[in-house]
Amino acid sequence: MSTVILAPLDGLAMPLSEVPDPVFSAEMVGAGAAIEPPDTDAAVTVVAPVAGSIVKLHPHAAVIVTADGTGVLLHVGIDTVGKADLFELKAAEGDQIEAGDPLITFSPNAIRRLGLSAAVPVVVMDSTPGSTHSTAAGPIATGAVLFTM
To answer: 3-class DSSP state for residue 25?
Structure first.
């Protein structure tokens, strides 16, 4: 059975190897892809890439576990831990959600003004590096297939 991971926001889809973070780029957390958000000061909403239960929700990240037990991590920006003022939560830990439900709102350029990457890695936790299929590249819209496992 394959798991379909949807794009949690509009932007440019890219392989994890292009994310400026060694943990994500080496797929140490798991395989996946990332999205570079648009060049904007406007609020961008990150939505759930899968349906399931939110088991962890931080201002900058969420972990959703699907009905079959697959853990999906999304991380908004790189080195954004401890920068809670950049984010607004739209959900809560323990929520049962559908793919496309709002999770976090942020301004990509507010992150970039701090000299940080606004890339949003989306990772299937504990998956084998290189195990994604049909990975999108280039412009992608919220809700389009980002990759399958």
So the answer is: helix
